[in-house]
Amino acid sequence: MNSAVLNTIAVTGFSVAFFHAAIPTHWLPFVLVSRARGWSRTKTLGVTLLAGLGHVAVTSLLGLAIAWFGFQLDAKIGAAFPWVIGGGLGAIGLYYFWRQWRGAGICHHAVPGGQHQADEHCGEEKEHSHWHEELEESPLVSERKSDWAVIGGLFLMLTLSPCEGFLPVYLSGVQFGWHGFIVLSVILAAGALLGMLLFTWLTLVGLEKFEVKTLERYESALLGLLFTALGVLIILLER
User: Fold this and answer.
1) What does residue 112 show for φ and ψ, rounded to 5 degrees?
2) Residue 217: closest CA among 87, 24, 75
3) Overall number of domains in the chain
4) How far apart are CA 76 and CA 57, in angstroms?
5) Helix, strand and coil in the chain, % to nearest 5
6) What domain range is 179 assigned to?
7) Model confidence, pTM
């Protein structure tokens, strides 16, 4: 086992999970719903953690399927596997660069009941967020809804939208077998949950002006850079 390769994949995976979780769709709805319903900070962070666990669990299940596919591929092509994986990650990186060039962001997690529709041009929404308007139209802030119903809605919002940016990381760790899968799943959980809880807490304590719009705007470029660099490093380190 090449520990340098695994360490590189681990660092890349944590970066992908953390920065993806820093996008407002992963924490801002919890803050806005919390304020609308008068939740305490502790309860808000607890709901965020619960939804984050669902988000991580579904992503890990998809990663399990990808890992199984990778194991079969590794058994068939042997020594050529790092080149195939490195080339595949490079292609994924170019795809994200292409998305950034087109102005298409990675937008998802619409508020249940809201009217905002994610599309390929959502990355162009640079100056104004529609979350407040969505929540005004959503049953999540309705006084007629119980807290459990609202929590369920927030949980489904994230659980049904897995972290697609992390899935290529699972494929890159296939050569390390089930050990690699477990390590990457732990890293996914650590990065995603830390990011969600950190930015939720920062906003709850009054740092509303903590700007992440630039990160959100250039998320595709960041993922493109990470996957391209990871693909190149896998090829070079395996040699």
Assistant:
1) -55, 125
2) 24
3) 1
4) 29
5) 75, 0, 25
6) 3-238
7) 0.77
